[in-house]
Specification:
By secondary structure, the protein is mainly β. Helices cover 6% and strands 47% of the residues. The chain has a single domain (2-111), classed as Transthyretin/hydroxyisourate hydrolase domain (Immunoglobulin-like), CATH 2.60.40.180.
């Protein structure tokens, strides 16, 4: 069914439109870039894999939150508390849909497996 992501900016109460994200496959400490993308006006991107292309294994999404909040004009100390948020997750059933949302502010983040 695929893989998708969605980011909500909890500081502004809005989707994180324009945030840059990178998707990697991982094996141990090794990471292979799959693609870079920018979130749309709804803070979404997906599907990241076409139907049937997602494989069982481990993956990493890296969200460029520091650059996003900087572009929004948020004044933060340098270096900022959060720069890039990296989420490592596993896909056990590639026939299922994996949705990886991120709720983020300049000082905190939360994630879960969505639907």
């Amino acid at each position: 069914m695929g893989l998708s992501t969605h980011v909500l900016d909890t500081m502004h109460g809005a989707p994180a439109a324009g945030m840059a994200v990178a998707l990697y496959t991982t094996q141990g400490e090794q990471a292979q870039l799959v693609r870079h993308f920018v979130l749309n006006a709804d803070g979404r991107c997906g599907p990241l894999y076409a139907d049937g292309a997602l494989r069982a294994g481990t993956y990493r999404l890296v969200f460029d939150v520091g650059a996003y909040f900087d572009a929004r004009g948020v004044v933060l100390p340098k270096p900022s508390f959060l720069d890039k948020v990296s989420l490592d997750f596993g896909v056990a059933d590639p026939a299922a849909h994996y949705h990886v949302p991120l709720l983020v502010s300049p000082w905190s983040y939360s994630t879960y497996r969505g639907s």
